[in-house]
Design brief:
UDP-N-acetylmuramoyl-L-alanine:D-glutamate ligase, seven-stranded parallel β-sheet, 2 domains, 38% helix, ten-stranded mixed β-sheet, Rossmann fold, 489 residues, alpha/beta, 19 strands
């Protein structure tokens, strides 16, 4: 099933389009959302009829969704308690209308009332805040969240856990730690970024029939299940040079494992020939791990020009070191060469000064994690995740393709954005980024479109991580474990 990612403002536009195109009112839209969230709960939570449900409702539109949920649950014969937090008279029109027609509820405005109402329940339905929260959570709502988080109940959040900012994933002082979140129609960045990804628990779509306004940006979740990973098939009348001749410039004393991981990952991903170029004076410090990988040496940056001949792709950065006086000169040389270029790790630091000169006529893929992107753009983590779209777009306007690595990995390039959520926490270990860079280089050598190469490389990397996890487990997973599970079938 196609999954798309939207901002809060874009979601409002999709809802507006739906009401206009379908000729329905906001009340009907809310009813549809509440029913979809209920259906998802029954289908996905493991609920057994007879188990008790407590619906904790705020006074906004998310509270309205929760009251629809409660109404349907009661009509289905399930034992449901409703707790409404705050002054109902100050609630949204839809919420007040639904509260007026609810058979029975507790309007808790004190912590003691709240505690008594929520005592001893099997399931808590979190409808306190929705996607509109922009302030720190305090007062009665904060107390309710603490009670929910310390209860033994299974917690199901409606649309997004209360207290998570929907556009960023930031915890607004405190937030519900859900076991499962049912999101209405489209994912929000808050489900995928920062703390949000851990607070959501299992994430499941609630299909409320909300149409997609095609005037808004399209961003899609990509995975092995719905993306064609095929690269051009090998033919019998071919040789190694037909499948990618890659040069990796990287490695320094104490960090020669990085380019070697990249090199072997590139070969396992289909590259025909890979050469690592290292500084001649550091040759004694390098131990050759993989005999299939070639090595070349240089003393001055200009000597790399000869090594670039006949190369299909250049990967710069893995293990290169952050204090090389020739780093910027090498970047200038690589940009001047026009060769398809992958820049990772330490290479990004030298690329920063040349950012304004990059792209346009050259295929470039960069693979930063959030810290590296912060340094590249001189922005804080909060700024980056406050508007991921904006900062990735800044780079893609220069025709640079970006893989922003993280628990959710965003890929942007050529006016397109995709996201992979298939990785696992075991991949948060040294060297896994070097493996990804090598896979990207191999894909770049075989595919014309750098965005397609970046997406396929990211999926292959995640799937290798999944396979390695199945055998090794998450704790102690190492980068070379991923290489062992390349290529995909």
């Amino acid at each position: 099933m196609e999954q798309r990612i939207v901002t809060v403002m874009e979601m409002a536009m999709h809802e507006k389009t739906t009401m206009k195109e379908k000729g329905i009112s906001l009340s009907v839209l809310v009813e549809n959302a509440g029913k979809a969230l209920f259906d998802t709960f029954i289908r996905e939570s493991g609920y057994v009829p007879g188990q008790t449900i407590t619906v904790v409702s705020g006074i906004g539109n998310n509270g309205a969704d929760s009251l629809v949920f409660a109404k349907i649950a009661r009509e289905s014969g399930y034992p449901v308690k409703i707790v409404i937090l705050g002054n109902i008279r100050k609630g949204s029109p839809e919420m007040k209308k639904l509260a007026e027609t609810s058979d029975e509820y507790t309007n808790a405005d004190k912590e003691k009332e709240l505690s008594e109402a929520m005592f001893d329940t099997d399931y808590v339905i979190d409808g306190i805040f929705g996607t509109g929260i922009k302030r720190d959570v305090d007062g009665l709502e904060a107390s309710a969240i603490e009670l929910i988080n310390t209860s033994r109940a299974f917690v199901y959040s409606l649309d997004i856990p209360s207290g998570i900012e929907a556009d960023t994933g930031k915890v607004m002082k405190t937030a519900v730690m859900a076991d499962m979140t049912g999101y209405v129609q489209y994912l929000k960045f808050g489900h995928l970024c920062q703390e949000g990804i851990d607070f959501c628990g299992k994430i499941r779509e609630a299909d409320a029939g909300i149409l997609f306004d095609m005037k808004q940006p399209v961003r899609e979740i990509v995975s092995l299940a719905d993306f064609n990973l095929l690269v051009p098939k090998r033919i019998r009348n071919s040789n190694k040079y037909d499948y990618g001749n890659i040069l990796i410039i990287g490695g320094s004393a104490g960090m020669f494992g990085a380019p070697q991981l990249s090199a072997f990952a590139a070969m396992r991903s289909g590259a025909g020939l890979v050469t690592i170029a290292i500084r001649k004076e550091e040759a004694p410090f390098m131990t050759q791990i993989y005999p299939e990988v070639m090595t070349a040496y240089y003393e001055k940056p200009e000597e790399l020009v000869g090594l670039l001949e006949n190369k299909d792709v250049v990967l710069f950065g893995p293990g290169f070191g952050k204090a090389d006086k020739n780093g910027e000169t090498i970047v200038k040389l690589l940009l001047k060469s026009g060769k398809p270029l992958v820049i990772d790790a330490d290479g990004l630091g030298y690329f920063k000064s040349q950012l304004k000169n990059a792209g346009l006529k050259q295929k470039i893929v960069i693979t930063p994690h959030s810290g590296e992107l912060m340094r590249l753009l001189d922005k804080s983590r909060e700024e980056i995740y406050g508007d991921v779209d904006k900062f990735l777009e800044e780079l893609t306007k220069r025709q640079i393709t970006v893989i922003l690595k993280g628990p959710s990995t965003f890929i942007a390039g050529g006016g397109r954005m995709a996201c992979s959520v298939s990785g696992n926490p075991g991949m948060a270990s040294a060297g896994t980024g070097d493996v990804l860079a090598g896979i990207v280089a191999a894909m770049m050598a075989r595919l014309e479109d750098p965005f397609e190469a970046a997406v396929k490389a990211t999926i292959i990397h995640s799937e290798a991580g999944r396979k390695a996890k199945e055998v090794r487990g998450e704790s102690g997973l190492m980068a070379h474990d991923l290489v062992d599970y390349l290529p995909l079938p």
